[in-house]
Amino acid sequence: MAISRRQFLLSSAGILAASQLPRLVLAAKEPDFDYVLTAEPGSAELIPGINTSIWGFNGGYPAPVLRAKQGQRIRIKFINKLKEPTTIHWHGIRIDIAMDGVPFLSQPPIMPGETFIYDFVCPDAGTFWYHPHMNSTQQLGRGLVGALIVEEAEPVIFDADIPLCLKNWHIDEKGEFTQLSIPRYAARMGTPGRYETVNGQHKPTIEIPAGGLIRLRFLNVDNTLIYKIALKDFPAKIIAVDGNALEEPVPLTPHEIGAGMRLDIAFIAPDKIGEIIEVQNGKGRLFFDLLTLKTVEAKLPKRNQTPSLPVNPIPTPDLKNAETINFLFEWSGAMTPADKKGKAKHEFWTINRRAWKGMSKDNLPAPLAELKLGKTYIFDMKNVTPHKHPIHMHGHTFTVIWSNKKKIKPYHTDTVLMEKNERVKIAFVADNPGRWMFHCHVIEHMKTGLMGYVSVT
Questions:
Q1: Where does the Plastocyanin-like domain lie (predicted)?
Q2: Torsions phi, psi of 58, nearest 5?
């Protein structure tokens, strides 16, 4: 049966039910909050017919998709129902330091049974996500990841707007968790999972309106993997990278997104009912099906082009007066000897010859750099390791301005994927006071040394 465009928009969650699109959960009984969110043990049917014990937001997976409006306040009541402390970091949001969710650096850990109110304004529209910043290998690996969509202040209407959370689970054929981190892999690309999912399903089929204007929001919420996104024999355009709109959309060619990174693409679906579009993930020169899009009937006006999104209000760096700070990412290539008690310590990675050793309430390490509020900085970063690293900075959006490996048209992002032996320059205005984490988003790399913070005062 044909449906109107309005009916399609209102019922899109139902039409896309086959994909188990993350559900929207409003705090109807909590009028003072936009959402009530918990972290707690739960279960998810990742492998058909098999329940896997996970840790999930609101006890399930996929996590609720949280939606905010650009420039408006959002209030989230968070309750920790785990048996260990946790926090929530709002990845990519230029946020007040008190809401950034890094234990000890920006807030005390949220202990079991405790509640914390996250209250902030999202200055930028785009595709973002949320996750803990404690015991990250386990908490993210077991399912505590979710999408945060910030809608444009002036709405840009698509006929289907679909978040796609990409995650490879460390589970066996019985749905039981395997080891989330193995030292020999942590010292290299990271420990890969075994079961690939999109919104919690393996190779799902998602229905889209025939002839409709489609927006796909890819979110790499995996601990480790790089995804190389492509559409098989079908044109599309990249409209945003890591939550930041491009001034001019560019044709989609196979595009890599490392752990923590996002990619928004747009295209006009085929007019014919039952047409198939294969969304693929590349492994080197080979490409494998990730999910399938299938057109269904919908009475829509004729679409002729994909729109541009409004560019976020990112401060323009003053490159002429910028101060340059050098960062060297290195690989030790061997395990650190055990400590005096015989407990193994693994420090495989360093920033400027220093491995992150963690912190506590009374023991904060020195910052990697001390920045002056309002000043422009260029970070000249060199990856001299044999592996790729998605380098992420909290509290700021930076501009990638140069690489020795590829031609760069400057673009805004919060995470840049550095190839082995690549040198990249990023620029930004240090306009957000606080102590901001600066790290690789391969979780095992972060946990074994490739992490630190910068201080803006």
A1: 47-153, 351-456
A2: 55, 25
Structure tokens at 309: 């999104």
Segment 273-322, tens digit of pLDDT: 999 999 999 987 889 999 999 999 988 888 888 999 999 999 999 999 99
Question: How far is Cα of residue 300 from the mean position of the Cα atoms in its chain?
Answer: 32
Residue type, 40: E
Q: What is the per-residue pLDDT across 345-364, written as a single tens digit (0 to 9) for each?
A: 667 889 999 988 888 888 88
Mean pLDDT rounded to a whole number for the chain: 90
Alpha carbons 190 and 418: distance in angstroms, whole number: 15
Helix (H) or strand (E) holding 267: strand 262-268
Largest CA distance in the chain: 71
Contact at 8 Å (CB) between 208 and 179?
Answer: no
Give the pLDDT of residue 59.
Answer: 95
What does the alpha-carbon distance between residue 289 and residue 317 come to, in Å, rounded to a whole number? 40
Which tokens go with 62? Answer: 């996929």
CA–CA gap between residue 106 and residue 130 (Å, rounded): 16
State the Cα–Cα distance between residues 291 and 93, nearest whole angstrom: 28
The share of the chain scoring above pLDDT 90, in percent, equals 80
Q: Are 95 and 63 in contact (CB under 8 A)?
A: no
DSSP 377-414: EEEEEEE-SSS-EEEEESS--EEEEEESSS----EEES
This prediction has a pTM of 0.92
Using one digit for the tens of pLDDT, what is the confidence trace for 141-150? 999 999 999 9
CB-CB contact of 259 with 441 (8 Å): yes
Q: Are 161 and 215 in contact (CB under 8 A)?
A: yes
Is the pLDDT at 21 greater than 80? The verdict is no
Q: Strand 89-91: give its sheet, edge to edge.
A: 66-69, 146-151, 126-131, 89-91
Dihedral pair phi/psi, residue 59, rounded to 5°:
80, 10
Residue 259 has pLDDT above 50, yes or no: yes
Q: Which uninterrupted H or E stretch holds 127?
A: strand 126-131
